[in-house]
Design goal:
single chain; alpha/beta; four-stranded mixed beta sheet; about 30% helix
Length: about 140
Amino acid sequence: TRALGGARVGGEWVPRAIDELPALCALAARARGRTVVVDAAELRVKESDRVRELCRILRAFGVPCEELADGLEVEGVEGPLRACRVDSGGDHRLAMTAALLGLVADGPCRVDDVACIATSFPRFVGTLRALGADLTVDDG
């Protein structure tokens, strides 16, 4: 198999995939090298400031990252990520990204405020379980 490698993402590709960039950052956390996302200032005015919040979540998992005015830089981590507890802040894209990061952590993780996932992908948990993920949703 071929390992993921860091990349530079920007230009005309970004507006077409603006909602997928948080998931791309989860992949970047596992890629070899640095991934740089630019031309994505729109991320700062979505349901949350996704640049700031993505960096907060990535850092909680032990992934080095830096905010840019119009994007972020993510340094891939070799080996498991750090188990942690994070809050999605009610942002469905961030909740799903944090859940994906938790799948490769060194222990159990908790993502708070996940009901928002139903906004864009109501079958997210079921889909991940069907792929073999061990996920539990705690309603309380």
